[in-house]
Design goal:
- The complex is a heterodimer of chains A (907) and B (109).
- Chain A has 907 residues and is of the alpha+beta class.
- Chain A is built from 29 helices and 25 strands.
- In chain A, strands 1, 2, 3, 4, 5, 6, 7, 8, 9, 10 and 11 form an 11-stranded mixed sheet that branches.
- Chain B has a single domain, classed as Winged helix-like DNA-binding domain superfamily/Winged helix DNA-binding domain (Arc Repressor Mutant, subunit A), CATH 1.10.10.
- Helices cover 55% and strands 15% of the residues of chain B.
- A 3-stranded antiparallel sheet of chain B has the order 1-3-2.
- In chain B, 31% of the residues are buried.
- The chains are: A alpha+beta (907), B alpha+beta (109).
- Chains A and B meet through α1, α2 and α4 of A and α3 of B.
């Protein structure tokens, strides 16, 4: 194509755009000239002037259409049309402000929420984790070959063997959780912080770079002689406790009452295993080998390039088989699982994201259906106008284009608004509570991919809301103009059926979400308000710990496991703190227990001798708690029989135990357990314990359905040596404090009282025993689903309102006739209300099916409620019926006010 | 008399280009000239003619000038551009090929 021609073409186009009126005038004048010549020709042929004029008009035909055709040749008409349609659309919207607002807002919520969930899911499951080449990071776990589902950490010996003999890993590292106490100083009280013992490979595996100082190397590994302990701290702790002091490297802090030198600071982007770790200590794997009996080490690895997790698993299983031969006592029967770090850390997000994502998509669908209903109604009202425009020469395509422009306008406004929803939604999603030990959702930036998602959804929405009404209008415009100019023609049965179906669909979709939200909310309420087996009002709990290294000393091994001597027994120290707490004004009573009674994930389970366990599974082993005298009376936990552990149960007396109902039922079915005996089968110096009482079941976790078997023993009646990984419980105590008034008013005095006598050991995890609000916060996604269900209900009732108002507008004459024939209010309400009721009912029936499907999908998140909980389904249906009923009130009242004489004369 | 739609697609463009190849003409004259030269066999309706003219103009094949006419008012006179002439050559070639092919087929079939 020559440049000259190109210039000419663009010259024409520009002129058509910029001087549109002039160009149109030229076309008109050109056609007028043609017409003049036509007339002259006729006159010359001998016709009268009048005849000639008429003939010319007939020959030329529809001049407006012809002009339109000429205009179409300019190739820029779409731009003009678009501008025109846009202006027209905006005017229409301004006239129907309320409807437009609801349509745009609901579409924006749908688009925004769906994009936020999809964007977050994309970032989590496909995006970059905050570690270099994160896709090669895997978690390595040991699994018992008999029970492959019970994955655990690894032994030190296993970790070392994997590290030395593997062929598939670049790096392997191990860590082990180790909460510690950071001693207080002049400015700050002591505090409990989460930490980890790590080997030198851990940071290398992740490729972490310190933001100050250095990370561990082999020379930090503690030797047998007491040396200075080195510690790496988190950026968070550096900021919170040390004000980002630039001289932090080399500074000495007191950790677990040991002087420790800070050698480095790890950036806050290092989220392993979660964002709560504040310090890292080097561990000595070779020394840990001496007491290598428990699989407590979390192992992480970086695969070599191109190696799959499966191949790595096969490689490590080969080593596992070697170990089974080399050290059969501890490694026989164990295999290895290799899992992507992403799955392990963020697998928990799948369920809440799926739930909220489906809810958002349902709201978007519902909003689309709603807007389609609105546009159809408007299309029906505009049919005379459209018919007129077709008669005046507008092509079918032109009409479709105009209606699509309006949809585009609605969708585009919604798309723009949805960016705000996405921004807010992505923030809200971060408050989804992770499972313990897993990181929460990382901050998601609104980047090009999310913007693309919004654009894509907006486009889909535009097509979704635009096509049906536009095609319906184009199809109906084939019917002739005269029919369309009468009001009666507005009611086309086919279209009425379509609109009724749309309203039914809205009701069904709304019901689906309402039932889902109802089941989830019920779950929260039931979990939060369940009978915990004690009086939770006025209780305050907090944790206190004496570091195990202060009182556990390895003295040898027994049957392959390390035996520790407990010296000095920490119980006296704990009792001293408890006595101080009892002296705080406002404390009615206080007692202690080794773990939080109803909020603990991992509890000590020990094999018992002298009992036949019905099913010898690990999960069935009874749980042990140590308690101080008076625990049950402080908690007001009712004893079913016998007595509680009291001040008489001291070292020199026969060892006593209290069991819960489940334990009594399981081991002594149909018998009175009081007076029965059992022995903790860990060491020969354990004494038999005699059951002195049975206490009511308390769930060890809120969500736990049935309490496990539990026995309670006194801190004072314990062997002086232990042989289990749970030796630390002797130094742990959760204080249970009953207050005279508001338990929270005790928090300050409590902190001060403990700091007074224990400057190095802080109390932590202070909470009331009634964490209702706390629970709600943890269930953020339930709040999100509830909010979306509310939006859905609102939309569905608007849909009902729309169809009602529209039907009534068409039936004004009929109502007028009925009224003038003497029909009362009741008859009229019945005549106009029944059809709507029928639509809503059909929608509800259809929705019940959808609701059941949704409930099945979320059933793993339900607690204490069945997926077919009838009251929930009934309440949700009733709620929708009520909302629909309320939506009908306005139109019905308007119908009742119709003045027969005016209405009948209207046409 | 065949309607314009009976004309092969693109034939109208060829007729117009050829008709104004010698000197500039306005729309009316073009339609008359086509009718005359074809011995009244081809008649181009204004409903097809003017859109076609505007299309060709916007494709850059022809250009238009407003000139006074014998009737005393100005009219839009269309003439070929340089590219239009080349286009006409191409269209003629195509037409020749096509019509001889059709003739050939009719003879042999």
């Amino acid at each position: 194509m020559t440049t000259q021609r190109l210039l000419r073409i663009w010259g024409h186009r520009l002129r058509s755009i910029l001087r549109k009126d002039a160009v149109d005038l030229e076309v008109a004048s050109e056609l007028a000239f043609h017409r003049e010549l036509l007339v002259r020709e006729q006159v010359e042929a001998g016709r009268s002037r009048e005849q000639a004029e008429r003939e010319a008009t007939l020959t030329l035909g529809n001049v407006a259409a012809l002009q339109e055709h000429c205009r179409d040749q300019r190739r820029v008409t779409w731009l003009h049309d678009f501008g025109q349609d846009l202006g027209f659309g905006l005017r229409t919207m301004r006239r129907n402000r309320g409807i437009t607002l609801v349509a745009v807002a609901s579409l924006a919520i749908g688009i925004g929420a769906t994009s936020a969930v999809l964007g977050v899911a994309r970032a989590i499951f496909f995006g970059a984790l905050p570690f270099p080449a994160a896709d090669r990071l895997v978690v390595v776990r040991a699994v018992p070959l008999e029970r492959p589902s019970q994955q655990t950490g690894a032994l030190v010996s296993e970790h070392l063997a994997w590290r030395e003999r593997n062929r598939t890993f670049e790096q392997l590292g191990a860590s082990h959780g180790f909460a510690g106490d950071l001693s207080g100083d002049a400015d700050e009280p002591a505090q409990r912080i989460d930490g980890q013992l790590v080997d030198a490979g851990l940071f290398a595996t992740f490729g972490v770079q310190p933001i100050a100082g250095r990370l561990f190397s082999e020379r930090d590994v503690p030797g047998p002689a007491p040396a200075v302990q080195t510690v790496v701290i988190s950026e968070r702790l550096w900021e919170r406790r040390f004000n980002r002091d630039t001289a932090i490297v080399g500074r000495e802090i007191r950790l677990n009452r040991r002087p420790s030198v800070v050698v480095g600071v790890v950036p806050s982007t290092f989220l392993y295993p979660d964002g709560r770790i504040d310090y890292w200590l080097p561990m000595a794997p070779q020394r840990a080998l001496a007491s290598d009996s428990t699989r407590i080490y979390a192992v992480i690895g970086r695969l070599k390039r191109g190696v799959t997790a499966r191949a790595a698993e096969a490689d490590l299983n080969r080593i596992a088989r070697e170990l089974a031969r080399e050290q059969p006592s501890i490694s026989e029967g164990w295999g290895v699982r290799v899992l992507p770090l992403r799955t392990v850390q963020y697998g928990w997000t799948w369920e809440p994201l799926l739930t909220v994502g489906i809810s958002s998509a349902v709201v978007l669908l519902l909003a689309c259906v709603n807007v389609v209903g609105l546009l159809l109604a408007r299309g029906a009202a505009r049919r005379p106008e459209l018919a007129l425009r077709i008669a005046l020469g507008a092509g079918r395509g032109r009409i479709v284009r105009q209606l699509m422009t309006e949809s585009l306008l609605l969708a585009a406004m919604a798309g723009l608004l949805s960016v705000a929803v996405v921004w807010w939604g992505a923030r809200a999603l971060r408050y989804f509570a992770p499972l313990p030990g897993q990181p929460s959702i990382p901050p998601i930036a609104i980047d090009a991919s999310i913007a693309g998602l919004v654009a894509l959804l907006t486009l889909i929405t535009c097509l979704g809301i635009g096509l049906v009404p536009a095609l319906a209008a184009a199809r109906d415009s084939s019917v002739d103009l005269r029919r369309h100019c009468t009001a009666a023609a507005v009611r086309v049965p086919r279209e009425r059926r379509l609109r009724n179906a749309l309203v039914g669909a809205q009701v069904a979709l709304a019901l689906m979400l309402l039932v889902g939200a109802g089941l989830l909310v019920n779950t929260v309420v039931r979990v939060a308000s369940r009978d915990l087996g004690f009086d939770r009002n006025g209780l305050l709990t907090c944790e206190f710990q004496i570091t195990p290294t202060e009182f556990l000393h390895p003295v040898g091994s027994y049957r392959g496991a390390t035996v520790y001597e407990i010296s000095p027994p920490p119980s006296h120290e704990l009792e001293r703190v408890l006595d101080r707490i009892r002296a705080i004004p406002g404390v009615a009573s206080a007692a202690g227990i080794s773990h939080h009674p109803t909020n603990t994930l991992l509890l000590p389970r020990m094999p018992l001798a002298g009992l036949t366990e019905p099913r010898g599974l690990l999960a069935g082993l009874p749980v042990q708690f140590l308690v101080t005298p008076g625990l049950f009376s402080t908690m007001r936990a009712p004893l079913v029989s016998g007595r509680e552990i009291d001040r008489q149960d001291t070292e020199g007396r026969p060892w006593a135990a209290v069991v819960n109902e489940t334990m009594a039922r399981r081991f002594w079915p149909g018998e009175n357990p009081i007076g029965k005996q059992f022995t903790v089968a860990t060491l020969p110096d354990e004494q038999p314990r005699t059951i002195v009482g049975v206490v009511k079941d308390m769930p060890t976790r809120r969500e736990e359905k049935a309490a496990p078997p539990v026995y309670y023993t006194s801190y004072l009646q314990q062997a002086s040596r232990v042989r289990s990984p749970w030796g630390g419980i002797h130094g742990r105590m959760t204080f249970v404090i009953r207050a005279h008034g508001d338990p929270l008013s005790l928090v300050g005095p409590l902190r001060r009282a403990v700091a007074e006598i224990e400057p190095d050991r802080p109390i932590s995890a202070i909470s009331t025993a009634d964490p209702g609000v706390y629970f709600w916060l943890r269930k953020m996604h339930i709040a999100a689903v509830s909010g979306l269900a509310a939006v859905a209900t609102l939309l569905a009732s608007l849909g009902v309102y729309g169809v009602m108002a529209y039907t009534l507008a068409g039936r004004a004459r009929e109502i007028a006739i009925r009224t003038s024939l003497g029909a009362g209010t009741r008859e009229i309400v019945r005549a106009i209300g029944l059809p709507s009721l029928r639509i809503v009912s059909v929608g509800i029936v259809a929705g019940l099916g959808g609701a059941f499907a949704f409930a099945m999908l979320i059933r793993s998140q339900l607690w204490g409620i069945s997926v077919t909980d009838r009251p929930t389904y009934a309440a949700a249906s009733l709620m929708l019926l009520t909302a629909a009923g309320l939506a009908c009130i306005g139109p019905i009242r308007k119908a009742l006010r119709i003045d027969p004489s005016t209405a009948l004369r209207a046409d | 008399m065949p309607k314009p739609s009976d004309l092969l697609q693109g034939t109208l463009d060829l007729l117009i280009l050829k008709t104004i190849a010698r000197d500039p003409l306005h729309g009316w004259a073009i339609s008359k000239r086509i009718q005359e030269l074809s011995d009244d066999v081809l008649a181009v309706q204004q409903g097809s003619l003017y859109p076609a003219l505007h299309r060709l103009e916007h494709q850059g094949w022809i250009t238009a000038d407003w000139k006074p006419t014998e009737l005393g008012r100005t009219a839009k006179f269309y003439s070929l551009t340089r590219e239009g002439r080349q286009q006409l050559e191409r269209e003629l070639e195509t037409w020749d090929r096509l019509s001889s092919a059709v003739r050939l087929l009719l003879k042999r079939a």
